[in-house]
Amino acid sequence: MLDVRSIELGEQQHEDFSSDSMSMSFCRKRSFQRQACLLSVMAAFSLGLALGAFVPIIGITGAHRDLAHPSADHRSPSDQVAHVDRRLLKSKVNPYVPVSFVQDDLQDMITSDAESSSSVEFVLPTEADVDLDGIVQDGIYWGQMIEDHIPRGFNEAETRSWQEYISGSFVVSLKPGCGRMQNRLVVFSDGRRACARYRQNTDQIQGELFSFYLGQLLNISNLVPSTASVIDVQSPLWVSAAQDIASAQWKVQRPVVLTKWVSDLEPAGIPSPFQPMDKHMNKFDVRNITLGLEDLRQPQRTLLDLLGVPKPQPTPLQPPPRAVKHLDKGKLERLVELAQWSDLIVFDYLIANLDRVVNNLYNFQWNADIMAAPAHNLAKQSDSQLLVFLDNESGLLHGYRLLKKYEAYHGLLLDNLCIFRRNTIQQLQQLKDDGPAVRLQRIFEHSTTDKVRDILPPLPEKSAKILIDRIDRVLSQVQKCQEQFTVTS
Fold first, then answer.
1. Staple partner for 143: which of 19, 134, 254, 372, CB 3.0–4.6 Å?
2. What is the pTM of this model?
3. Cα→Cα distances 182→178, 198, 244, 248, 354, Å
4. What is the phi-psi region of residue 315: left when phi exceeds 0, alpha when psi lies from -120 to 50, beta otherwise?
5. Could you give phi then psi for residue 73, rounded to 5 degrees?
6. 342 near 421, Cβ under 8 Å?
7. Helix axes 329-351, 403-415, angle to 10 degrees
8. Strands, E, within 162-225: which ranges?
9. pLDDT tens-digit profile of 41-70?
């Protein structure tokens, strides 16, 4: 007979043994997990040390570059950081706001978080940075330092002297040259020369002459002295050139514009701030040119950036000075040229000149390289660096008739300009107050002979009204720039 007590004791011992076994198994699992965790940490730490020491040694950046761009030259990591991707120069990137660029061949390797966290930022210019004493005044005007170095150009006294010279001179020959087929290079008895503009339509003669008068009223000295004459082989001026006049197929009793010959002219290109259609010219651009920062763009991201490996850092730029007391010759010449371009853009907008920069802008849609070509009807004196505004015959009449087609290009140039010559804007305001039609008619009457005025009409009333509208448009742009760039105390 079984002892119930013995059975209960045995069951109790069996339960105690099972409990001990389960406890030992759980302890083993916990120990194994701790060991595995420790091994994982050590492995990660070892891998990190290996990457930190091994990647810079083998030059993984160079390896990636050679793989993606086999023709590229070898650069150190610091050179890669400073390397500028030229595609940015063609992209519509505002240089004054944070930008981010990722190489196309690495696009699929980067998540959106990595992209946002590794973007490069440029510091926004402050008013203190651009307060360039003598270079920019009141935020929108060229300063006295620049004004003092702008070439003198052609003043009112030289224009009067040229008109008096023509009235008492004798033409001895006409030679081919000076642009279009029926234009001629005029040689006078004393050896002086002039360019004679002859056209079948008098509105182009009017455009040339009245555009010159407008430049005089605005004190823009980049227009060569010009005057009008009537072809008359019986007059002392033309009698000796009667045979050449017939050879040129000029008709008598027709008006021509005689422009003083200027030597030592060379082609003039379009400055970079006005080449692409999304560029601009304001005090921040002047500041960047002055400080040598105009070509600064965001450096490329490299594979080192993606791996998070430390790399050599470029030397940080020094804080820009509040004022610049001296400019090297190259920067000064460039700013002086841009100051003359400020007048050029205002002048060409007022007369709606088609034959200069607008011509390049219009043809840009078919020829992307045309903006790098010299500007039409613009030259530079090689000795003085004076920009010479040539051949303005489309101004005020022909150009106004084509505003529907070309106004977008005229407006594009004006909208991108926010730095002006103060005297030009002051004269423009005075012209608006006095009435441009009255002022232009007055100078026309004082500068031409009765014979010229009998053949050549005054500026049409319709053109005078359009000119008033365009003066208002320029002054409106000046006001907009004042609101945006002038610091108010």
1. 134
2. 0.70
3. 9, 6, 12, 6, 20
4. beta
5. -80, 160
6. yes
7. 150
8. 171-176, 184-188, 193-198
9. 677 666 666 655 544 444 434 433 443 343
